[in-house]
Amino acid sequence: MSKAFTKEEDGDESIRLDDLPQSPHPNLVTPSGLATLNARLSERRRDLAKLKETPDAFDTKQAVAVTERDIRFLEGRISRAIVPDPKNHQTDIVAFGAEVDVMTEDDTRRTFRIVGEDEADPVQGLIAPYSPLGVALLGAELGSIVEWRKPASTVDLEILAIRFP
């Protein structure tokens, strides 16, 4: 049974929500990704301070509980953050942080950047390292062909360029 409701020491009923799950993977982040996590944490802390200034209604207690849960989640992500230095990567092998130009089987050129899970946005070409595409690209050499295993098919991608912005 979940302990969503607990009593504070002063006798007021407060709400404590279960923590959001953390990824089981190492939390690789780019410098901009870490900055975004820190900005989100600062914003949530400001939100919490404002909420605590408002009257003690149930809606406020619920909002405080959600905000506190978000803060715990972000603190966990930041405490586990690993920022690899792109200067330590070979320039002809895809690694975390790389921007990769590929050619698809239908001669379409696409660019992907391997970023942290919190930064991933496939529509923008930002790919998490643990996604099927990230797994296919990581470790690939310039000029090689990799197999991107999708749920319904497999797509061959030729690595055309590797950059570390």
From TrEMBL:
Give positions of region: Disordered: 1-34
> GO MF terms on file?
DNA binding; RNA polymerase binding
Transmembrane stretches, start-end: none
According to its UniProt entry, one GO biological process term is: regulation of DNA-templated transcription elongation
Q: Which InterPro entries match?
A: GreA/GreB_C_sf, Tscrpt_elong_fac_GreA/B_C, Tscrpt_elong_fac_GreA/B_fam
PANTHER family annotated for this entry? TRANSCRIPTION ELONGATION FACTOR GREA, TRANSCRIPTION ELONGATION FACTOR GREB
Q: What is this protein called?
A: Transcription elongation factor GreA/GreB C-terminal domain-containing protein
* Organism name: Falsihalocynthiibacter arcticus
